[in-house]
Amino acid sequence: MISDEDKIMMETLYWWGIPTLFRCKNDPNPKNCDIALVGVPHSTGNGTTERDQHLGPRAVRNISAMLRRSHFDYKIDPWTENKIHDLGDVPFPEANDNEKCIERISTFYDHIEQAEKPVVSIGGDHSITGGIVQSLAKKNSKLTKGKKITLVHFDAHTDCFEKLDHFLGAKKSAAHWASYLVRQGNVDPHTSTQIGIRGNPRTLDWLQASYDIGYQVITMDEYKELGQKKCAQMILDRLGDNPIYITFDLDCLDPTVAPGVANIEPAYKGFNMDEVRKLIQSLKGKNIIGGDVACLMPTKDSPNQITAMVASSIMFEIICLISINLRNK
Predict the structure, then answer these.
(1) 0.85 surpassed by pTM
(2) 95, 138, 97, 130: which is closest to 114 by C-alpha?
(3) Are strands 119-123 and 25-26 parallel, antiparallel or unpaired?
(4) Which of 39, 118, 206, 313 is the most buried (most CB within 10 A)?
(5) Does the pLDDT value for residue 8 go beyond 80?
(6) Is 119 helix (H, G, I), strand (E, B) or coil?
(7) Banded pLDDT at 117 (limits 50, 70, 90)
């Protein structure tokens, strides 16, 4: 037998034991948990040769145990306050068929929506958000009480490229989800914000589709000019009474912080961890019903797995926001 102190130490050794997300119990039934965690090992929505994003969930399962900790700012330990379970991975028997994979994602999350459980996911390329949100915010959704979702979207790119009929063959792609979720009635753009945008523009009107569809866009240049507090307030002022979903593309971070991402943007400085953590924490007390972290590319990560650690840390922040909501209910 080992002591309780030794158990705590052993549970935070990422290379020991069976890897699950944050070493949570593996249970595929969402009815048995308070907060669901899901892996979405999907790569074909990116439409490029950057296919290794499907390895993201495995990389985070491998490393996240060492990051399982209490939240000092919030003074909570979400792991003891809630039943947080790793539901496993969305299955993709048609892995090279993006449109079929999006259907698979939505079908998987239908069970979570029916169980009315908040869910935090790790991808996978950013097309996963389309499959997740069109399930969670479907008509008559139990989880959202039939309301549309408000997005807080961290990204270097808008993913709202309506001029493209497809992205190298993928239609519900990583370049389209922010648009079609609005067109389908799943997302309310007039309460939603896209922040950190700094991607390499192909045309001078590359942000216009987001403006036209109704999103508030805060570019990285605007963030630097306005500052964290002002931008956080702009997000909060925009929020309606819809349930909130946080989607976090790791490429919004500076490449020095998160080198292992699919669509790296090296020319203009991105967020550091303090900046995004404070922005996420500004949503404390709001109705967060889920979130995801996307675009982790483990095969491009540093040997110390820093980008996987960063992805785990962002997931942890979202989990803690949800935990606080559950405490206050």
Answers:
(1) yes
(2) 138
(3) unpaired
(4) 118
(5) no
(6) strand
(7) very high
